Amino acid sequence: MIASVVVLAAVSLERLGELAWAKRNTAQLLARGAVEHASGHYPLIVAMHAAWLAGLWFLAWDRPIQGVWLTLFGLLQIGRLWVLATLKERWTTRIIIVPGQPLVRRGPYRLFDHPNYAVVVGEIAVLPLAFGLWEFAIGFSLANAAILAVRVRAETAALSSVTDGLR
Predict the structure, then answer these.
(1) Are 167 and 159 spatial neighbours (Cβ–Cβ below 8 Å)?
(2) CB of 115 within 8 A of CB of 108?
């Protein structure tokens, strides 16, 4: 039980820290002339992630942890840190574009266009599985897939409009 609370607390603190960092980065980017794109779906993303985390606290706080899944979640955190370190001040939770800036093509972005979303897909499924909550993992993975279908399309369009489709 204590291990489960520690894991959930660590993930919660990580997410809160990321939200603060994203808010700061967003403000700085907008001050430099950046433009937010497709903000209409953003409340759904926030609601889904908040519900996912709240649901884990409700269902998993006293469950045993399955080490293989927790290890995989830890590996996903390395991927998350790689994305954050690569984007630095350009990382936000919104679609923020600074006109004239080239796309980031280093780090995980050398490999594919949306590595952050790949990490999130893994996290949404893997952390519940670490607590044996496979139904929860499936349900939130489906909700995440629906939201990401909208998000990736919107982000790709925003990036293409600014860079004239150059990758």
Answers:
(1) no
(2) yes
| CA 76 – CA 24 distance, rounded (Å) | 24
DSSP state of 101: P
Cβ(61)–Cβ(8) below 8 Å: yes
- pLDDT over threshold 60, residue 59: yes
Is residue 65 within 8 Å of residue 132, measured between CB atoms? Answer: no
CA dist list (Å): 67 to 6, 56, 62, 141, 148: 14, 17, 15, 21, 28
pTM of the model: 0.93
Which among 6, 15, 90 is positioned nearest to 45, based on CA atoms?
15
Cα 7 to Cα 17, 90, 116, 128, 137: the distances in Å are 15, 28, 21, 11, 17
Tell me the pLDDT of the chain averaged across its residues.
95
